[in-house]
Write a structure and sequence with these properties.
heterodimer; A: mainly alpha; globular; B: mainly alpha; Four Helix Bundle (Hemerythrin (Met), subunit A); 8 helices
Amino acid sequence: MDIRSAAIDLGLISPEIIILASAMVVLLLGTVLKSRGLMAFLSLLGLVVGLVLVLQQWSQPQSGYYGMVLKDNFSVFFSVVFIMTAIITLLMARDYLIAKHIDRHEFYTLLMFSTVGMMLMAGSTDLVVIFLGLEIMSVPLYVMAGMNKIDPKSNESGIKYFMIGAFASSFLVFGIALLYGASGTTDLRRIMADFSFLKMQSELLLYSGALLVMTGFAFKVAAVPFHMWVPDVYEGAPTPVTGFFSVGPKAAGFAALLRICVYGFSGMAELTAVFWLLAVLTMVVGNVLAIFQNNIKRMLAYSSIAHAGYILVALTAGGEGAVSSAVYYLLAYMFFNLGGFTIVTIIDSRTGSNSQIDEIKGLAGRHPYLASLLALFMFALAGFPPTAGFMGKFYIFSEAVRNGFVWLTVIAVMNSLVSVFYYLRVVVAAFFGKPDQEFSPVSFSPALFIALLVTAVGTLALGCFPGYWLELSQMSMFPII
Amino acid sequence: MLEVVIFYLSALIAIGGAVLMIAQRNPVASVLYLIVSLAAQAVLYIQLSALFVGALLIIVYAGAILVLFLFVIMLLNLRGEHFEGQDQKVGRITKYVLSGLFFIELVIIVRQLAIPARTDIVSAQTATDFGGVEPVAELLYTKYLFPFELTSVLLLVAVVGAVVMARREKSEKQGGV
């Protein structure tokens, strides 16, 4: 695959420019026009145009801006995931924001800024750009977490996320500085090209830098033991924002981590042990603690930790097959996790809700379709066939076995079994639970309907016809030079 | 010889200033110690003959950003007692143990560093007017153009975020939901 290169080419970053521009248009128009619906629509339009432009770049690997931007299939694939996440979040957020009186145009602006940050993270092999992308992604997230200013929990969430995020960034920057000290470059491709020389010259510096960079990203993808912030932040943030947190930044963190591990540190075989430990801890702690949660947002927070663990299994296994299985899993995870969060958002939009699992009791009697969809998403999260969750786990586990990580796979499968318990608890509450009082009906809007439709179709399509999607994720593999 | 003395002196002041900065309860004192640390770092840059970078550090950081810090602290009227949290014993011990371990790790790294290994690169760069206005500008507007533009996006995002968080909403004035 030859990569066309140009110094300055606005077409190369046109999706980012379009989304940034619409974010600014919404920001400015929102101060004059009062119609928040129009702002939401404009944001949606900007994201959709961005999505179309990104799709144009598929299978045309290009590089530009002196090697700072790399648009290969990998970055296109992840950009599609990020933009889809933003679109679904936007669709599900509208009614919730109105119900909670926090319907502000800045929400849409920040959502789009954050999406651009993620796209930048996936679209570069230079650590400086990856870091800046991470910050552009994170700063709006801190604000979105604390958006509901009259809710003390939302404040707590914003502040906690901000502190932890700054802390994690400092690890990352320090690691990048050490890597630069070891190699004299921040470009992962050049680090990889000189790897054996660098290892001989300054091995310790290289490894310390690599570990610090990994620590920084481990905070972002919420791997154990860097997960302490997750439950509080996820619980306190407005529910659609929580959905966005659990997919967008996680996928972006993994995109950067995959790039770094496959490009930069592919020569560091010793890191496999670190990943092994991270994967096991993340799966076990996430799944075991999820069992004890009564708050559905906290439960899904721990569940998202556990899912990060499954993806870490793929990273441990290494190699092209494993990376493409991780990419496939992230796509699948986006659909069913956002689907689950859409339903939680709908239930949370009722006044006086504080997201307890008990509040779902009796959902099936009142809204049978909604309850069935909830069951679908929970089954997918638990990994039942024929949903996307099953195929995703299947690919990851078979790649792990193929690369000789049998024990790791056994632990992963056992964790997957444990997770069935807490996911089914939600389904049982929805179908068989007797509500304490009359189940107050939920309101529905076309936007929510579209969000549910997209996520449900995605969950089933990836599960029933995995071949096509797996091929796409294999094509998204960047060439290992 | 004099160069070595100046190096160690300013390095000590830089580290000491940084340590004192985080050890202070009073935010104004913290900011002042940060300025001391940055000034000493600027000396280190100048010793590397990176005159422009050293000057930038003084003008931008010590001159502009930290003065802004001071303004914010004075406007908010923050004082030391605002930060007297109830420190738990276990938390305090872990804090010191972890930072101690990290410090030891860094000491080991620095001791084992094969610094001469990269002198070829460093000397190649210092041959021209390394760290002067021209090379910095050239890098900033060619190789680092894209990251440079991204920083402005980041600043914009931060401004928008700060305004969103700081602005008082109608619903808050009325007491809210």
